[in-house]
Amino acid sequence: MQKPLEDYEKMQPVAMERIRRAFQKDRLAHAYLFEGAAGSGIEDMTRFFVQLLLCQNPSDSVPCGHCRDCRLYLSGNHPNAAKLEPDGQYIKIDQIRELIYRMNKTGFSEGRKVYVIRQADRMNASSANALLKFLEEPEADVTAILLTDRLHAMMDTIQSRCQLITFRQLPREQLIRELAGQGVTESMAATVSMLTQSKEEAKALAEEEQFGQARKTVVKLVEVLNANVHEALLLLQTDWIPLFKEKEEAERGLDMLLFAYRDIASVKAGLEEMLTYPDMKETWKQIALQRSFAVLSEQLQAILTAKQQLSRNMNRTLMMEQLVLNLQEG
């Protein structure tokens, strides 16, 4: 389903203006490099651009949505549109060769051919060089769109042959408003918007029972740490360790704990807007009264150190016990 034009303009006004202006003035590049994180709207904008390039009856640089090409593309069946993504860890040379073969074939449908390569930074050396050769000898009716969230990992020679368009992250306030409009509570929206820029992922997290329990456990640990270290160590065994078993879950738990202490430091500094846990503001104020900025700085550093230890595969239970002791000493 095609979104209203206003949604794209709100999502990425600069990128949208560049795309539409290039199309309107017939100054389209043969290759584009879209750089942006998940949740920035990069996927939605890519679909809009591909549809625009294929549309038979665009109006004011907007696809009509009704012609045969628009209908084929929206149904995922357009013969002149191809997409590629990693097969396992990398995009392999055979995938690029197959793509080039398809782009060189006479299309079943007249008009431009468009191919999209997702996670283009994950091409290995051989596949990147094969694509580079194709980019160096562009076909007039073929447009490439490469997507990446790691621009630094892209070959310089490929970057130099593409028109770079950067997608900024969506403002957190906008994401919170959109989530609230879909029934997510303000407090939960504030929390999940710190963990992901993707509205779909944020909404899924907000509705996940386990994540709700994880949020409660993080808040409870901060409260208990302020009162009794022995109770905090017990909470680790009964609640924290079972909830944050996997490495990815443990990393998210540490992030959520870090955001809680950032909230406390923000409240102490009188910066109470855009907290991660706005429903805990009064509790954070009480804790902030008992902590100096120096102590809060030490506590934040202790959590960052624990994150580094987690990445080095330190025993998680031991790491968390040490973190609780360090936070208590702080």
From TrEMBL:
Pfam families: DNA_pol3_delta2, DNApol3-delta_C. The keyword Chloroplast does not apply. InterPro entries: DNA_pol_HolB (IPR004622), DNA_pol_III_delta_C (IPR015199), DNA_Rep/Repair_Clamp_Loader (IPR050238), P-loop_NTPase (IPR027417). Its EC number is 2.7.7.7. GO terms for cellular component: DNA polymerase III complex. It comes from the Bacteria. SUPFAM superfamilies: P-loop containing nucleoside triphosphate hydrolases. It is an enzyme of class 2 (transferase). Keywords: DNA replication, DNA-directed DNA polymerase, Nucleotidyltransferase, Transferase. One of its GO terms (molecular function) is DNA-directed DNA polymerase activity. One of its GO terms (biological process) is DNA-templated DNA replication. It catalyses: DNA(n) + a 2'-deoxyribonucleoside 5'-triphosphate = DNA(n+1) + diphosphate. The keyword Zinc does not apply. Residues 241-328 form the DNA polymerase III delta subunit C-terminal domain. PANTHER family: DNA POLYMERASE III SUBUNIT DELTA, REPLICATION FACTOR C / DNA POLYMERASE III GAMMA-TAU SUBUNIT. This is DNA polymerase III subunit delta'. It comes from Planococcus lenghuensis.
